Amino acid sequence: MRYLILSDIHGNWDALRAVVHRVRRKRFDATLLLGDLVGYGGAPNQVMEELASLPGKLYLVRGNHDKVVAGLEDGADFNEAAAQSVDWTRRRLTPDNLRALRELPQGPRVVSRRADRAAVAICHGSPVHEDTYLFSEPEAAMAFQAPPMAHVTFFGHTHVTSMFILHRGGVRGLVLRTDGRMRLHPSLRYLVNPGSVGQPRDRNPDASFMIYDAEKLTLTWRRVRYPVREAQRRIVRAGLPDLLAERLAYGI
Question: Can you give the pTM of this predicted structure?
Answer without folding.
Answer: 0.97
